[in-house]
Amino acid sequence: RAQARTAVSTWLAEWGVTEVASPPPGGWSVAFDAELISFARATLKRLGREQSPMGALDRRELRLPANRAQLEQQCPQLAAADGAHVQQRWLLLSRLNVELEALVAHVHTGWAEQPHTLGARICALRELVFHDVKIGLWQAAMPPATADNGVIKDGEVVSLSRFEAEAAATQTSVSTPRAAASSSSLFIQLFSQLRDTPPIKLRRRDRAFRVKFIGESSDDHGGPYREALTYICAELQSPQSELLVLSPNGQHSLGLNRSSFLIRPSATSPPALEHFAFLGMLFGCALLQSEAILDLELCEHIWKRLTSTHLDELDLAAFDESVYSSLQQLRKIDEQGIDEDTFGDLFFNTFETNLSDGSTVELCEEGAAVDVTFATRKRYCDMVLGARLAEGAAACESILAGIATIVPGHRLLSLLTARELQQLVCGEADIDLSVLRSHTRYGVGVNPGQKHVRFFWQVLEEFSPAQRRLFLTFIWGRNRLPLTERDWGDQSMKVHTLETRKPNDHLPVAHTCFFSIEWPQYKSLEIAKAKLLYAITNCRGIDADNTQEARANAIAAWIDPSR
User: Fold this and answer.
1) Which helix (H) or strand (E) holds 291?
2) Residue 380 φ/ψ region, left for φ over 0, alpha for ψ in the -120 to 50 degree band, beta for the rest
3) What is the pLDDT of residue 202?
4) pLDDT by residue (tens digit) across 85-132?
5) Closest Cα partner for 472 from 522, 519, 516?
6) Are the C-beta atoms of 350 and 332 separated by less than 8 Å?
7) 359/221: higher pLDDT
8) Is 213 strand, coil or helix?
9) What φ, ψ does residue 278 adopt, rounded to 5°?
10) Backbone φ, ψ for residue 63 (5° rounding)
């Protein structure tokens, strides 16, 4: 401790600080530091420098507001501190990140489950590592661009039939609702064609493979690839999915994350784990390529498990509020006047529990025959909690194994928070129209002041978040925007005018490969909204590409008798 205090004093002296501030009222803690970093990020945004490195923020720019009421709601520990605490702690956090950035490649093992190791100690401080530092380390660990002629000429090619997948999904019987649809799903079609492909061939910075949509006039210059991934994510989050299941909170309309999915607990067979490993390879593609974004809405505890973050009972509440509440009540049942004599008259549980997909697991040997008693109720609660939090553990290991085949720097995952990994794989679910506007270019003779162009943006503003995602899928084949300016690169949405004498009779035309739309000169906002809403809801096939490749794909379903 004395050595640590000396080091702190030395570091602070380098910045001209001669007196070390005493700890704030709540003491120094990871929670305090995390709040300070959040406040610093908000400060950069307020100063219009949100793209700047966190370390570029001068300590004197961190000024706590005079009115602490609002700050107390968001950062309660920080609100109790004074300016000296904030500024000196910021200097130390900045120094910590400088040291980590230089040394993490040599000392970070990623073994978060080994608490005695330096790597585990770094993982425990993951919230204190600046996001831009993590991204810099991540980018440095990525492989360089493939030295070939690009995915169009030298990449793997897959042939996918959406018609086959949709037909199977609609014809499944009540007795086999998932297996029949899954065998023809786009995910299984892709898996079957790539399962024996060496992962190094998919480890590309442009796109992992090239897509031919059977029976559709598509020529893959990016659009079909993005659309295939979006379609696969929709399959995985459908009732027919064999890998994912809607959270119990969603099933019962309780608590948080009602629209989120988690790993199907009963999907533990060798074929299922092989599918999860392939899903992990798609995760790796999303981490490696700006073209790939996976539209998966997974419960936070899955991302925590993938980043080796400890899970607790609040994670159970986040996906199964009902069981969490029941366990809390059972632990404290004595406070309601229930004792050993009356317990057996009210509770008839045995040492088994239902999992998120309705499957049952015994908590101990022959647990179905072991009654829960007043004396064993807390042990039962602990075992239920452990079993529920362990759902999908084997699948997550398979996903991580799949990621590792594509991303060489996978050990850095344990340096990320669950939220950061989710953003890298899935992007932001909400489509920020101000960001989209800033990355929009207009065709010849088109400008944002024209009436029909104003209608275009008004329609998007009136759309719900789900409708905006459908729009992005319609025009770009993906339904989430790039996460950072670096991810955007030179990509931008192009808006052209669709020249026609009767604009109100026409639907907008999208070119997903080129992120562009031909927009008719509609006469009213109501007509514009109705036309675009119809297009994004009903026009999912790709049928406008007029190349030799597209024409060949369009007739492939007629030539191939197996389809």
Assistant:
1) none
2) alpha
3) 94
4) 899 999 999 999 999 999 888 888 888 888 888 888 899 999 999 999
5) 516
6) no
7) 359
8) strand
9) -65, -40
10) -115, 120
Measured distance CA(457)–CA(437) in Å, rounded: 9
CB neighbour list of residue 79: distance below 8 Å, 6 or more residues apart:
64, 68, 71, 72
The secondary structure of 163-207, three-state, reads HHHHHHHHCCCCCCCCHHHHHCCHHHHHHHHHCCCCHHHCCCCCC
- For β-strands 493-498 and 516-520, DSSP reports them as parallel
In contact, 373 and 344? CB cutoff 8 Å: yes
Count of positions (residues) in the chain: 563
DSSP for residue 6:
H
Which sign, positive or negative, has the C-alpha torsion 541, 545, 549, 552? positive
pTM, 2 dp: 0.87
What percent of the chain is modeled with pLDDT above 90? 66
Distance CA 482, CA 436 (A): 10
Q: What is the DSSP letter of 56?
A: G
| Neighbouring-strand partners of residue 548 | none
Distances (CA, A) of 482 to 207, 417, 439, 528: 15, 19, 11, 27
Write out pLDDT tens, residues 431-443. Answer: 999 999 999 999 9
Cα 382 to chain centroid, rounded: 30
How far is Cα 205 from Cα 486, in angstroms, rounded to an integer?
Answer: 13
Among 90, 87, 68, which Cα is nearest to 79's? 68
Per-residue buried b or exposed e for 143-168, using 16+ beta carbons within 10 Å of the residue's own CB: eeebeeeebeeebbebebbbbbbbeb
Q: Are the CB atoms for 91 and 27 separated by under 8 Å?
A: no
pLDDT digit string, tens, across residues 328-373: 999 999 999 999 999 999 999 999 999 999 999 999 999 999 999 9
| pLDDT tier for residue 259 given thresholds of 50, 70 and 90 | very high
Q: Which tokens go with 384? A: 């239920």
- Do 139 and 177 contact (CB within 8 A), yes or no? no
Active site residues: 513
Q: Hey, CA dihedral for 287, 291, 292, 293, is it positive or negative?
A: positive
| Token pair recorded at residue 471 | 């729009």
Token pair 């060949």 in the structure block, residue: 552
Q: 260-281: string of b/e by CB count within 10 Å (b at 16+)? A: bbbbbbbbbeeebbebbbbbbb
Q: Residue 240's closest CA among 302, 282, 180, 296?
A: 180
Rounded-to-integer distance, Cα 233 and Cα 229, Å? 6
Burial of 544 (0-12, 13-18, 19+ CB in 10 A): middle
What does the pLDDT read at residue 194? 97
Report the alpha-carbon distance of residue 561 to residue 214 in Å, rounded.
Answer: 12
Q: Is 255 left (phi over 0), alpha (psi -120 to 50) or beta?
A: left
Instruction: Indicate whether 391 pLDDT > 80.
Output: yes
Per-residue tokens: 101: 């950035």
From 193, 181, 180, 279, select the one nearest 238 (Cα to Cα).
181
pLDDT of residue 22: 83
